[in-house]
Amino acid sequence: MRFDLDGLPVHFPYAAIYPEQHAYMGELKRALDARGHALLEMPTGTGKTAALISLITSYSLANPARPLRLIYCTRTVHEMEKTLAELRLLFAHLPPPAARSLLALGLSSRKNLCVHPQASAAAARDSVDTACRRLTASWVREKAASDPESTPLCEFYETFDRAAAAGDLASFMPPGVYTLADLRALGRERRVCPYFLARQMVKYANIVVYSYQYLLDPKVASIVSREMQKECVVVFDEAHNIDNVCIEALSVSIRKQTLEGAERNLRRISQEIDRFKATDANRLRAEYNRLVDGLAQRGNLPISDAWLANPALPDDILKEAVPGNIRRAEHFLAVLRRLVRFLDGRLDTENVENEMPVSFVASIHSQAGIDQKMLRFCYDRLHSLMMTLEITDTDEFMHIQTICDFATLIGTYTRGFSIIIEPYDERMPDIRDPVIQLSCHDASLAIRPVFDRFETVVITSGTLSPIDLYPRLLNFNPVISRSFTMSLTRDCICPMVLTRGSDQLPVSTKFDMRSDPGVVRNYGRLLLEMASAVPDGIVCFFVSYSYMDGIVNSWHEMGILQDIMQHKLVFIETPDVVETTLALDNYRKACDCGRGAIFFSVARGKVAEGIDFDRHYGRLVIMFGVPFQYTLSRILLARLEYLRETFQIKEGDFLTFDALRQAAQCVGRVIRSKADYGMMIFADKRYSRHDKRSKLPGWILSHLHDAHLNLSTDMALHIAREFLRRMAQPYDKTGSGGKKTLLTEEDLQNMAQDGMEM
Amino acid sequence: MYGVGGGGGGFNAPSTTAGRRRNPGDEEEDEEEEGGEGRVLEAWERAYADERSWELLQEDESGLLRPIDTKTLVHAQYRRRLLLRSAAAAAARIQKGLIRYLYIVIDLSRAASEMDYRPSRMAVVAKHAEAFIREFFDQNPLSHVGLVTIKDGIAHRLTEIGGSPESQIKALMGKLECSGDSSLQNALELVHGYLDQVPSYGHKEVLVLYSALNTFDPGDIMETITKCKKSKIRCSVIGLAAEIFICKHLCEETGGSYTVALDESHFKELLLEHAPPPPAIAEYAAANLIKMGFPQRGTEDLISICSCHKKIKSGAEGYICPRCKVNVCELPTECRTCGLTLVSSPHLARSYHHLFPVAPFDEVTPVPNRIQRGGQICFSCQQSLFNPDGQSNLHVRCPKCNQHFCLDCDIYIHESLHNCPGCESQRSITS
């Protein structure tokens, strides 16, 4: 359909539109008009993606002065594919002249794109990368030119390289929408490398869909996203955890194994250096000269080999020459050895230590004789050295890279970080597992260049409440920040707060109550009763793995688990990915065949973040307790302190916000579209308090009736039965009885006219 | 029991305040909430919603209490159902399966003892199954019913498929106890085995009354579903608790309907919806000639052993098969000896009306006029359509012959008579 939105003709690929999508587009248009950033919350299942892409595309079609440049960041490959599918629908709907000139593509790692028969067979991401480099690195290709017999090359890359040199890459890729599968198919058909082709074509594409890391992680961003122009509109989808992504991008942790690995790497590098000295001393000399000129002008390094990049942000790297005392390879190696030994010494501590980067650098200087400037150049220097030594199996050298990463970060930043050394894990004091953690506290550091560089950044998700906290955490000023609710033809979600068990005693996972057998039993009874009343799938979220282990054990001893098994099969998430995937598969099977199943999972785990439990896979989700972070963790404490000092965010506020967004994220798994329905039980007395509850997203709150705020198990059971019966009645899609939730073209015209008359 | 127990604070708050607590910006949202259309009755209100006994009484002039008539209300409900049904069969002539072979599967697993229906799910199911069987034979005199129960994960055939309501009901009432798990697959496999032998003109149907929320199956139920689909068995499920994916899948695959009952009256309604014959699937469209016998009552002096009960009976108590002269007690049935379908002619006639239903009548809004003379009396019962105070009652009009009818006659014509008196009398005049 085509309609008019405040004077902008919008092309929308569907015949009808939800009212909230219409409102969403309106806000988005205002943000684009103002050339500012936007923060928009809208529940999943309401077609955020379709609204976003069709508005932005229509906007640039109507304003030829602002050509279409959209960077759409998603979290997973699956979401990327879904977005591209939406794009394809939209392109099919656009007027032909416009659709014929637009190019949209997804970009992912080599693992997902490689079509080389041997290289793509590797299991891990790093090994695919390594295999690829072995076939495509510039010196390998030089060698092949002289000795074509013994050096295998990647024919796909060769085709790409010839085309790139001739400048007709576009002939491989006519305008259209390319999903990852399309890219692979194209690669196989035209015998060209899809990965490099996509990476090159990103420069010319109108719409690029890729993962967060490509923009936020400075190591990757500087390679891939360097050439994006300022006019780009950047969208972060499912961005409720964006602050954590930013922080992770700048955090490093070093363990004993890392240091041992680094030692190994150093030995190998020194062997290589010796070998080169004997055979090709010129190379090392040439490198030395280049370093004198400064890293900033390393134009003579072949650009295609740019596979390592500085972990610090582009603006923070000084454009100056590498300090004299690490220019020579042997000297640099000695510096690294001293650094590794120093870190090893620090790791031997018996006490927990918490230091700021400044004092840490000072102690490195006094004990190992490495000053801040040398530290800062470690990463680039290592990069250059490995290039010179023609090392292709980079995954082997991960450890030394981590060390240099660490060194560069502490050499560059003095604020917003802290270094925490812990001799053992807080929860398992008997097992010695020392770790040095460089943790970033300031999410705004990693994202600032994005906000500075691009005119419009849209952050959107189903759960961004409380919406005023994000601008403070990320330190930016949105021109629009709004939360939308879902328009529904029926009350298809039923959130409840359960505060008491069937014996009327309060339930909670509060520290002093969580091991109380009464609470454990009440939780068990709740699950048992629900298992007998709810069909198909139930998902349970616990606050942590250890708590889940404990409670499942107690349930087993009490015999509750056996009773539950009479109704449904039980599956448990473990930290192991393969195991969990298997459990999920079987869980789905049990739901499909009518046996019914329960999935035990952990808030903040893999399942809570990325797996949907829509339709019969999740008719009910129970959140046992409030998923607060482990508050004794040093990293969290340091971050809280930093937040309080820098952004004036109270500890309690942040903790509650973080816990509630995790809880909302967990329960939000259950509903993925309007035709779907599901119940959510927040089983903890603390949820009934206003300060906790008010932090839930608006679309959950609006369905949380006052009568459902203080329930006991039997009352909840009764409500559940009623709700399930009501929801099982035939579903009227268009919405009868005055509640319009699908607007057609006509309705929109009427709306516009009404607006004019008023 | 759900109640005010425990003294939950704010538990009784009216639902509209829930809207107000939210973001003050969403004003139009609030209005929608307060439209009150979606308001759910509270638990204590609900029990009386059906029987507001005090409102049924009205004082008349002399101060005596008399019940006010709820006829219009009941009628409105009835009409809604009628329209819904005819809307489904909107296309004028739909072929219907008149000879049905229906197995009713009753789930007597542990879940059937739950007390959310009073006195228990099992009792409610049995009660309405009985009513359904009678209604079913009333509407489909040529059809056959059998009963299957699921108990302890095993399906049992309670009665053989047959044409007599009495024997079915007797068998059902004798077997009412529940235990163990339920298994949908076992039931389907059993029924599939029996229905596979049914002659090709018969419409094979299964109606599952399912209390449980899961199914404990020995094998892959998906295979069983495909098998049922292949043998063209139409499976329908009425759930008593909640929507179950596998039931929905089963019904979608086999072309049946899946419904879930809200309460006892709704359950009855859903069950009775299965009484009229369903539209035939295109594959059955091939016309088939079926051999039928029309037996006569035996004479008083003929004493013979009846084939169904193996008892000595006089001929007047039974019917004599025209082909093999054996005595059968009830019609319609299949002759035990020669396998001939035995019916009486009224049975055939009664099945016929499904093919040519009377079109639903249009409602005439009550108008306070006396000018419209023609509409004064009901065409069928000759009662006046006007109140004593000169206001015309709500009544209906046949769209074809434009005759007016009162509400009682409307129901009578559609449910029992299956002919419009107006149209019939016109036809007799013209011919």
Chain-wise SSE layout:
The complex is a heterodimer of chains A (about 750) and B (about 425).
Chain A: E1 2-5, E2 8-11, H1 19-34, E3 37-41, H2 48-62, E4 70-74, H3 77-93, H4 96-99, E5 103-106, H5 110-113, H6 125-136, H7 138-146, H8 155-166, E6 176-178, H9 180-190, H10 194-201, E7 207-211, H11 213-216, H12 218-224, E8 233-236, H13 242-249, E9 252-255, H14 256-279, H15 281-293, H16 329-347, E10 353-355, H17 357-368, H18 372-388, H19 398-412, E11 417-424, E12 432-440, H20 443-453, E13 456-461, H21 469-474, E14 478-483, E15 493-500, H22 517-533, E16 537-542, H23 545-558, H24 560-567, E17 569-572, H25 577-592, E18 597-602, H26 606-610, E19 620-624, H27 634-647, H28 651-668, E20 678-683, H29 690-693, H30 698-701, E21 711-712, H31 713-727, H32 745-757
Parallel strand pairs in A: 3-13, 3-14, 4-7, 4-8, 5-6, 5-7, 8-13, 15-20, 15-21, 16-18, 16-19, 17-18, 19-20
Antiparallel strand pairs in A: 1-2, 9-12, 10-11, 11-12
Helix pairs in contact in A: 1-2, 2-3, 13-20, 14-15, 14-16, 14-19, 15-18, 18-19, 22-23, 22-24, 22-31
Chain B: H1 16-20, H2 27-34, H3 43-49, E1 57-59, E2 65-67, H4 71-88, E3 100-107, H5 121-139, E4 144-151, E5 154-162, H6 165-173, H7 184-195, E6 203-210, H8 221-230, E7 234-239, H9 245-254, E8 258-260, H10 264-272, E9 292-293, E10 296-297, E11 303-305, E12 312-314, E13 319-320, E14 327-328, E15 333-334, E16 341-342, H11 345-352, E17 362-364, E18 395-397, E19 404-405, H12 407-417, H13 421-430
Parallel strand pairs in B: 3-4, 3-6, 6-7, 7-8, 9-16
Antiparallel strand pairs in B: 1-2, 4-5, 10-13, 11-12, 13-14, 15-16, 17-18, 18-19
Subcellular location (chain A): Nucleus
GO cellular component, one term (chain A): nucleus
Protein name (chain A): DNA 5'-3' helicase
